[in-house]
Design a protein that fits this description.
With about 130 residues, the chain is mainly alpha-helical. Helices cover about 75% and strands about 0% of the residues. It has helices spanning about 5-25, 35-65, 70-85, 85-90, 95-120. Residues about 125-130 have low confidence and may be disordered.
């Protein structure tokens, strides 16, 4: 793994966690900046890191061999990485369909931001591959 890929992963986790913490803070009506910062560091970053380690990194290793990293596929895959695990988790809580949809969209948008941040830092294409 190159240094730019590792840096891109860190940036993706932090951006995704920031978006997730902001969305959660707005949902529970948090107005305090310190509380949002604590949500970001203590709650959202471990969740984003778990998504990155267990879903995004293996998927990246497989997909980068086949296709260059473009904006559209980084965003699409990022949305999926954020959104796909959530219905399985929320369904175990017995939440109503609206809450399930909103939670899936929030995590999806958070993953979308992480995917786009990853692409912005990592750059186009696989190592030694086409530019775009």
């Amino acid at each position: 793994m190159s240094a730019s890929t590792a840096l891109a992963g860190v940036v993706a986790v932090l951006v995704s966690a920031a978006i997730g913490a902001l969305a959660f803070g707005l949902w529970i009506n948090v107005a305090d900046v310190l509380a949002l910062g604590l949500l970001w560091i203590l709650l959202a970053t471990p969740v984003a890191l778990a998504h990155c380690v267990f879903i995004a990194a293996p998927l990246y290793a497989v997909l980068i061999e086949r296709w260059p990293l473009r904006w559209w596929n980084a965003g699409l895959v990022g949305f999926g990485i954020g959104a796909i695990p959530i219905p399985f988790w929320v369904a175990t809580t017995g939440a109503n369909p609206f809450d399930l949809l909103m939670t899936t969209l929030w995590f999806g948008v958070s993953g979308l931001a992480g995917g786009l941040a990853f692409r912005a830092v990592r750059g186009p294409g696989p190592a030694g591959g086409p530019a775009e």
